[in-house]
Amino acid sequence: MHRLPIFALPLLALPVAALADEATPLEIVVTGQGLDRSQSDPVFGTVTIDSARSAASASGRLEDVLSAVAGFQQFRRSDSRSANPSAQGATFRGLGGNATSRTLMLLDGVPQADPFFGYIPFSALAPERLRAAYVTRGGGSGAFGAGAVAGTIDLVSAGAGELALLSARGLMNDRGESELTATLAPELGGGFAVLSGRWDRGQGFFTTPPAQRVPASTRARYDSWSAAARAVAPLAPDIELQARVAAFNDQRVLRFAGANTASSGQDASLRLVGKGAWQFDALAYVQARDFSNVVISATSFRKTLDQYATPSTGLGAKLELRPPLAAGHELRLGLDWRRGTGRTQEVAYNAGTGAVTARRRAGGRNSDLGLYLEDTWKLGALQLTGGLRADRWTIADGSYRESNAAGAPTITNLFANRSGWQASWRGGARLELTPMLMLRGAAYTGLRQPTLNELYRPFAVFPVTTRANAALVNEDLLGFEAGFDLTPAAGVKLIATLFDNKVRHAIANVTIGTNLRERRNVDAVHSRGLEFDASAPLGPLQFDGSLALIQAKVEASGSSAALNGMRPAQVPKVAASGTLSWVPAAGWLLAATVKHTGSQFEDDLQTDRLPAATTLDAVLRVPLGRRLTVLLRGENLTDVTVVTRNQAGSQDYGTPRTIWFGLNLALGR
User: Fold this and answer.
1) Judging by beta carbons within 10 Å of its beta carbon (0-12, 13-18, 19+), is residue 584 exposed, middle or buried?
2) Mean predicted lDDT score pLDDT of the chain
3) CB–CB of 632/536 below 8 Å?
4) First-to-last CA distance in the chain?
5) Does an H or E element contain 483, and which?
6) Which of 305, 511, 599, 626 is 20 to 30 A from 1 in CA distance terms?
């Protein structure tokens, strides 16, 4: 029942855009964006990744683009062609340890995490559709702040002004895999529309090392598509309506033949932005998602689990007001609301005989209502900011049911509803010592609810089974940071940040027996470190680099005391990225990127190590006239072995050397 309303939403904006010239004779400029970036951004060291930096990505995937900010990581090192989608949670600052996102990711103001699992559907978020990504490590957030315990990634869609009227791109790599994209961005009266689509498919590569392959081993085949339609229309000289719908489908095969994974979704949002004296941003959205996964035994190579459906729905709204104040003074008042519901439905099989052993259903409902206030004031060389937030959270309708092969109930667990209020705050200052040197400092708190997946759904990654835990409590962030921004010359910027972040009651997968883990709240995940970001012209070249040095540890007591002092699973001590690019003329680009990820541990007890890896990528773009461009991209050019999983010696590898060749056509504007 949700599909028709979702895909009808853009029709509300298109006629208004087409008739805008007749209805509004005054000159109107629409942007398709929200309100201007908050004046508090510089206090929290927000880093901007623009479309020029995105173009240097050799994989053309968003997770690769975001890794230009050191410290960004997913649970595993795999990208969205060869990872299980449910393991693609985003985090910063070594505050990982499980597969759920501790970083809040927004697209045009809408949270992107899956309502059931908390992972990010990276394959549905194409970089070529984006104007920019604004990355804040730590710091929490005002609007939709619940969930931002490790930072915020704010994605902004490109409008007609940043896109060609019609563009199309096709690439093929040395394994015969393909990437096809197309975008149509017409101006309609005083507004515009953007229609876009992308299709990626390929046979993939063997993630299994040669010595561990068996007849059932297969390549990481993938086939994914996404499409989006966006319309922006002026309703008045300083008010615009934005409507967006999107859909995606992503299918992958992981490690063994028959280990099929699929995720899909349909999203829609309406946004009303006013930029007059009283500025406002009103947003409403709906998300419909599904996920399925087949687990194949690594010993019998039979199906052991068929998680055939995990339907979930996300609903949300936001309203922010900015009253007219004196220059340099910004007050943000707002509320936001989110609700996620979902159920997993799965069948378990005997690995030896293939007979059904159990049928399971589990799920529930989470919701959060947040009220926030943030005031930022610039007083000469000093800028101050402070904010308060109160969240009313609810965990409800939780259940876990299991029946035998005949359908007779064997377990029926109905969990009590829980709710409460939780306050959080953030504040900071930025001082301009000289026109070249800015000092800044900040402190903040935040919260993240456990996901429905963490609360109710057990899972297995052979040979380890991890239990759910319906008694999990909210994670609670306390963080401090200080740093400086140095601009010694035109075009040169150096940013350094010292941070101390602690996520109390952090949810971790805790080993409680042989090949058995359980999701539990440990006392804390405590991370300290240094972050460096640099951007500088070097003659005709441009350098952009980022480095994160992280010392993270688990603080645990009681039944989880064995983890005390351990580094969180999957967290490296060092992460670095550096890109050297050359643009000799309009349309040209030659860029090389080196990325390094330090060694990390697969598990909470630090028994299985993932070695450090350093990769080299490159991109070459050569225009053939005004409209046609040749593209050449190379991933992992030195063919380094990147170990992405290691469980008692059973390993998976990341992307090997891959060469892409293609053409890009751009018409109009």
Assistant:
1) exposed
2) 92
3) no
4) 40
5) strand 475-486
6) 305
Amino acid 143: pLDDT:
78
DSSP structure string for 342-404:
EEEEEEEE-TTT--EEEEEEEEEEEEEEEEEEEEEEEETTEEEEEEEEEEEEEEEEEEEEEE-
Chain centre distance of CA 665: 29
What pLDDT, on a 0 to 100 scale, did the predictor assign at position 8?
47
pLDDT score recorded for residue 466? 85
Closest CA to 69 of 544, 618, 592, 591: 544
The per-residue pLDDT for range 336-347, each reduced to its tens digit, is: 999 999 999 999
CA distance 396 to 368: 12
pLDDT along the chain (669 residues), means of 10: 43 47 55 89 91 92 94 90 91 87 94 94 94 90 83 94 95 97 94 97 96 95 97 95 98 94 97 96 97 91 93 97 94 96 94 92 96 95 95 97 94 96 95 96 95 90 81 95 95 96 92 85 95 93 96 92 91 96 93 96 90 97 94 97 92 96 93
- The answer to whether residues 367 and 339 touch, using CB atoms and an 8 Å cutoff, is yes
SS3 204: coil
Burial readout 205-237 (b: 16 or more C-beta within 10 A, e: otherwise): bbbbeeeeeeebbbbbbbebbbbbbbbbbbbee
At 27 the pLDDT is: 58
Q: Measure the CA dihedral 431/433/437/443, to 10°.
A: -20
- Is 132:156 a contact under the CB 8 Å cutoff? yes
Give, in order, the Cα–Cα distances in Å from 176 to each of 169, 200, 224, 252, 255: 16, 11, 15, 17, 20
Beta 151-157 vs 103-107: how paired, if at all? parallel
Q: What's the CA gap between 424 and 129, in Å, rounded?
A: 34
Judge contact between 111 and 340, C-beta under 8 A.
Answer: no
pLDDT value, residue 28? 66
Single-letter amino acid, residue 216 = A
Q: Which residue has the tokens 């997993």?
A: 344
Quote the tokens at residue 406. 């005949």
Residue 663 · residue 620 · CB < 8 Å: no
Query: For the chain, how many residues are written?
Result: 669
Kindly state the greatest CA–CA separation across the chain. 76
Could you tell me how many helices (H) and strands (E) the chain has, helices first?
6, 40
CA distance 573 to 53: 25
Question: Nearest-CA neighbor of 424 among 394, 443, 446?
Answer: 446
- Structural domains of the chain, ranges and CATH numbers in brackets: 3-667 (2.40.170.20)
| pLDDT attached to residue 603 | 85
Give the DSSP letter string of 252-292.
EE-SBTT-EEEEEEEEEEEEEEE-SSSEEEEEEEEEEEEEE
How many CB atoms are closer than 10 A to CB 50? Answer: 13
Radius of gyration of the chain (CA): 24
User: Which residues does 344 contact at the CB level (< 8 Å), separation at least 6?
Assistant: 116, 307, 309, 310, 360, 361, 362, 363, 453, 456, 457
Q: Which helix (H) or strand (E) holds 6?
A: helix 3-8
Model pLDDT, residue 462: 63
